[in-house]
Amino acid sequence: MKSKFLLFLTFLLVFSSCNFTENLNVKDDGTGTFALEMDGAGLMAMAGDKLSEGLNQKKDTKVIDSTFSFKEIFEAKKDSIAKLSPEQQAALKKMENFVMRIKMNAEKQQFLFSMDTPFKSVADLQNMMDGFKILNDLKGKSDNGGMANPLTDGLGSNAKVDYSYNGKTFTRSATMNKEALDKVKNDSLGMAKMIFASSKYTLKYHFPKAVKSVSNPDALFSADRKTITVEYPFTDYSENPEKLNLNVVFE
Q1: CA-to-CA dists, residue 26 to 12, 185, 213, 218, 239, angstroms
Q2: Where does the chain show beta strands of DSSP type E?
Q3: How does pLDDT run across 27-56, given as a tens digit for each residue?
Q4: Which range, of 29-38, 71-80, 230-239, averages the lowest pLDDT?
Q5: Where is the signal peptide (predicted)?
């Protein structure tokens, strides 16, 4: 039943768009919050009732508003996690404070999916996506026979991403790993490219100081210059994560 639903969901993603947003909020003391968000309103517009049934497995439920922590996921997967290497377990440990939220309302054509976490330093976010890939592998093998889930795969990344902030400058640096790059090239005409062909990936970064300059020429500024936004087609970002590299200098 789950496999049939995922096939149905994949079909919908091919013919509708989803917007992914990387939302970063940095405070004066360097602490802040980080969130990965997906707006799947296009899915709800096409088949809200079927999507609700597939996720909730209750035909009479039209609204879903669910929140749970990654600690709960890890507890359910503790036996599998114990078999992982120390490095893989450490990568998952970084994700313990993430909270996942799903809001779905077929009548309002609303489908919002987010994962967010607080951080004590921007450096805490280094290579955070490693944990998502490991968790996706664990969930994929046990929950759906190894079949890819477009939702969680879409929030992943094909690169190592480093962040730094010292009050004067901020940098976001993505480096594509060879294995992921080869996979993307091999699938350049495959399902993944079809699924996200009309989707967008957006960076929305909020800082405590006004921005003097930013290296990315496509960045847009808020009126107070404390927020920058950069948007790219998702497939462009997936194949060339370096396009969203940033070097920000504050006033």
Answers
A1: 35, 35, 17, 21, 28
A2: 19-26, 32-39, 63-69, 99-105, 110-119, 159-165, 169-176, 200-206, 211-214, 220-221, 227-233, 246-250
A3: 989 999 999 888 877 666 555 555 555 555
A4: 230-239
A5: 1-21
